[in-house]
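Methods, example record. To illustrate the input and output format used throughout this study, we show the complete record for 5-methyltetrahydropteroyltriglutamate--homocysteine S-methyltransferase. The sequence lines were provided to the predictor; the line carrying structure tokens was produced by it.
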Amino acid sequence: MVQSSVLGFPRIGAFRELKKTTEAYWSGKVGKDELFKVGKEIRENNWKLQKAAGVDVIASNDFSYYDQVLDLSLLFNAIPERYTKYELDPIDTLFAMGRGLQRKATDSEKAVDVTALEMVKWFDSNYHYVRPTFSHSTEFKLNGQKPVDEYLEAKKLGIETRPVVVGPVSYLFLGKADKDSLDLEPISLLEKILPVYAELLAKLSAAGATSVQIDEPILVLDLPEKVQAAFKTAYEYLANAKNIPKLVVASYFGDVRPNLASIKGLPVHGFHFDFVRAPEQFDEVVAALTAEQVLSVGIIDGRNIWKADFSEAVAFVEKAIAALGKDRVIVATSSSLLHTPVDLTNEKKLDSEIKNWFSFATQKLDEVVVVAKAVSGEDVKEALSVNAAAIKSRKDSAITNDADVQKKVDSINEKLSSRAAAFPERLAAQKGKFNLPLFPTTTIGSFPQTKDIRINRNKFTKGEITAEQYDTFIKSEIEKVVRFQEEIGLDVLVHGEPERNDMVQYFGEQLKGFAFTTNGWVQSYGSRYVRPPVVVGDVSRPHAMSVKESVYAQSISKKPMKGMLTGPITVLRWSFPRNDVSQKVQAPQLGLDMRDEVNELEPPSVEVIQVDEPAIREGLPLRSGQERSDYLKYATESFRIGTSGVKNTNQIHSHFCYSDLDPNHIKALDADVVSIEFSKKDDPNYIQEFSNYPNHIGLGLFDIHSPRIPSKEEFIARIGEILKVYPADKFWVNPDCGLKTRGWEEVRASLTNMVEAAKTYREKYAQN
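The corresponding predicted structure is encoded as:
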């Protein structure tokens, strides 16, 4: 019989139990025992769920309290000295590395003040990993045995699992050198880290594990020759190590063929490849297998919520069986199910027709099992029939297609995506209009989403207060934020977004063509979970979405007020997009909707408009080539469609975070001002890359995901480093990102220090 396999399962709990307990631990409301108890309950539930569904190969060590890559850094002692000197407990070290830590000394604890490690996007997903940071003095060793402990935990329940660990080549390549070791190439540490991998694998074998999933996702990237060669070095070393389990090397999110030569013939038990994202690689990867190696066929989508088409999935797996035989084929999810919501049965309010098209992580367990049974010759006719009906229902539905939207997209021309004048002419007009000082200060958009805001939003949603009452409350919150910004001396203000639950969901709820869940949460990073909307059909804008709040905010202040919008690519990428048409088709629809909103914002009084596109780098195809060029063309064009209808005096801003950006990518947007997450970047070359960026830029000065409050002196030092390579007359002063996750005490102190630092530099430059 062909086996079924799941590469990993969501670790957040069906109702966000992990988030609630983790944040309670951070705030001191619960202790470690309660945190660890909830983590154990989630793991046990996940394993039992998969066992009950009939999954044959179940992952362990897919659980994390923060991030699986950060777990490995802690496990392998890749801990920068700035953390070890405080001698924190392992879990507190993990959290300090992930989010920073700042606390005053007490009778039982000494003072701590440490920033977080850099956080970046996990390939082209909206998940963020904490980037490993290495130095010449990094000494790898095992700190504990988390993968072994969790394997034994499942074994005690009577459930055999396959531990999963990020592989050595990917782990090093995805890391970076510390600022004091910039000449270090992380891949050069391979020989130092391999003995620790071998030690871990031997411990897993001694515990009873017969196979281990080694994730090497970088196989879908453009890799230097030195990194390609590292695969042979790594896996030949591990093959020669004593007492290690069988290894299955897993890659996902793309096509491995450009790196296929580097893994062909490796002495491993088998490989996993993603055939949802890259079915075209099938013939070549099959030909590269040895006569004994198994192939894990990633055919159930781990990145989206649409039901698998069983007829297509079965046909694809049967092709693999024809080439290799049943004993060498495993039916699997394309990747970990980390990127999908937990359970569709918890959705009680979804339209029944649309709900029938969806499959969340729990339902995908059934999908992978059904496909495995079908290709094994078992009778699953009823399941196949029900699935075929659901696929046909979606294809034939009137919800999916809107002829008016398609006609509007067909009318797009080059003029629609071009500003009226080039940036120098716009800049002159904007200087005369706004008369901003040197080093203008602003924020990225959101302010703290307080308990009071959440309570009132919930009351309004439930009908416990009227629309008029809710509107009055929102206006009072906007005024509070506006007066605070005026008080501390910010130059360009925002309304704080108290009316918004999420920067994508808020707009999606007001656009036709979207569906929404109640419990469809997905982890973005740490305890930050998102509830992505689902694009179910062609998208259009029935009415204004943000005009009322932005116009009101501008009416109560004489300072410029930014109208805050989310860009078309970010709305698309941070939703679950359609899989029946390409994103190239979906993006301009959203661009046209944003254009209507921007044009409606402009006439009353809002003359600074920020259209955030943090996902534009995330959506970039993982390899260079024509696909990447095509993406950049439609992505930047969709942004310009949305923003090019304004006057020269109107200033267009955009924002980007937690990605390795290329200045050429954002240059094509032709925004007047861009703000970029920067506080965790410690490579001076990164600043240099933007020194020739023609328009204005704000490099984020403090980490909004950390409760830590930077001092005025720290801001002054940070700005000083930037000004060594970046022109003062083009530099804006701002945080990394929006402030919705922070408390008011932190926000007040951090922004005040930031503004005072900007004033210090204005005085300094005025004297020169």
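Annotations derived from this record:
The two ends are 79 Å apart (CA to CA).
The longest strand covers residues 294-300.
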